[in-house]
Write a structure and sequence with these properties.
Two copies of one chain form a homodimer. Chain A is an all-alpha fold. In chain A, 82% of the residues lie in helices and 0% in strands. Chain A has helices at 2-21, 24-30, 36-42, 45-72, 79-98, 103-114, 118-143, 148-167, 169-176, 183-208. Chain A is elongated, with a radius of gyration of 20 Å. At the A-B interface, helix 1, helix 6, helix 7, helix 8 and helix 9 of A face helix 1, helix 6, helix 7, helix 8 and helix 9 of B. The first copy, chain A, binds a DNA duplex through helix 3.
Chain lengths: 211, 211
Amino acid sequence: MAHDRLLDIAIREFGLRGLEGASTRSIAAAAGTAMSAITYHFGGKEGLYLAAADHIAAQMGEDMETAFDQSLLIDGRDRAAARAAIHAIMGRFADKLMEDGSESRSLFIVREQMHPTEAFDRIYGGVMGQMLEALVRLVRIASGDDDDARARLLTVTLIGQVIVLRASRASCLRLLGRKAVDSALVDDLKARVAANVDAIFESISASQEPR
Amino acid sequence: MAHDRLLDIAIREFGLRGLEGASTRSIAAAAGTAMSAITYHFGGKEGLYLAAADHIAAQMGEDMETAFDQSLLIDGRDRAAARAAIHAIMGRFADKLMEDGSESRSLFIVREQMHPTEAFDRIYGGVMGQMLEALVRLVRIASGDDDDARARLLTVTLIGQVIVLRASRASCLRLLGRKAVDSALVDDLKARVAANVDAIFESISASQEPR
DNA sequence: GTCTATACTACGATAGAC
DNA sequence: GTCTATCGTAGTATAGAC
């Protein structure tokens, strides 16, 4: 179906070049169809862009669903379980972020972070927001600190440790002396982040009970 | 001078809209000059883009210079001093990243991270690379672990905690329930990151000397 | 449903007037 | 040095043929 081919290529092109950088002519050509097929199926470039956002949100939803569904079942007083769930979500997030074929999707989202449009609402309003809120709740439990603002700020610094590899990819690759991100590197990163997370929560626990 | 006005506006426009999104016509109009002035002063759109990158690199250099010059003087065995220097660099980095008027520059760099061009070489090859290398050295000292690869990976997770507020700005603002990043928030973030950094290095130290 | 034609706008580059 | 005028290219949208 021309519809699906166009959507596929649109995600790639919009992620790679952005809304303005991508051209409907080249998207249509790559899909082996006429440019006006975009008008027909999606109403225009803008509609195609939003359809791409919806598709990305849906795919992200599938990928993260089980990991964060489980986290909702966790008891509000079980700090160890909450921390384990944080490790699980962050690990899965890292995997999905760096997975082959996820580059276009990630870049699409990074672009929207800079210049949020309606497309960002569709992505954040879906599973992304739910995942982050679930993470905040787990952080509150795992830290034993009910203060919401502090939990949210800590959550930001946690996800930053994973996201940096996508959002600042070029710098990271140079700093690590690599040409690309392979699965061994992702595993190393996950281990490093997990150790950091443990260290941070241990430190918070220690400061709560001085002796 | 038309040259400087064009450069100023170019940084803003390229940062906001990207190389393809920005138009030489509107940049020239905003600078109150004819479009062909860009050709005259910079040789064309591409030249203007590279000049913008050079200007950003130079400005970043000034801003971070003292903070990281001092770090080079630190003794290779003084773990406490190295950790203090890490705090100083990261704090200054956070300030500069979130400072009023730095948005365009930050966005310019984030875009280059996704799709590095010659402009990225000019920025990274300047002070950015030096700052990151200085950080790696400090991390190696502060952690008491001479392994270079481990130090680089840890460095990545450290800067990620700061950069996330720019690179994933929209998500962070939503998660924090804010409309904008004010200086109070930056101070909170700096304190949180500093605590995280301490916790991580304490944990590493503890694992090295089990008793 | 899909493609061809075409209309219209905006882009970047350049030549030449001042 | 700076601006005006213009060229060629590429963008989106639309109407209508198949």
